[in-house]
Amino acid sequence: MLGCLPNAAGSAAAARSARFSPRQRLHTAKDFGRVFGDPVRSSDRYFTVLARSSGGGVARLGLTISRRIAKKAVDRNRLKRLARESFRLQPALPACDFVVLAKAGAGEAERGPLRESLDRHFARLMKQISAASHG
Fold this sequence. Notes:
The structure is a single chain. The protein is of the alpha+beta class. It has one domain (21-134): Ribosomal Protein S5, domain 2 (2-Layer Sandwich), CATH 3.30.230. It is 41% helix and 17% strand. It has a four-stranded mixed beta sheet, sandwiched between helices. The longest helix is centred in the C-terminal third of the chain and has 24 residues, at 111-134. The N and C termini lie far apart (44 Å).
């Protein structure tokens, strides 16, 4: 149902533009390792988000939601869905690799505060990356 997407205009084109394609994912340990090696960080009580310039033409996302943080698979999957949704709906992410790490308490938190937290992280990281590349 397209009407459930916040930005959807109800068209198939709007649904296609909001997809999370394989090109937008970090796949290998090497991809993740590169981000963990020298990241720009943003943290709060729910998440730590790491970013590093990718040199590619597209922003990519990796997720690290451990069983220690969210015991039930349904809770881990909910956190992953929220992170992917927030990432997809960012207006203009730079060509960087992002890794979202959940913290204790994120598994029990409500959807609204989690989504706001992720949106703040992406906005903060975009500013930091932009400032670093221009200064």
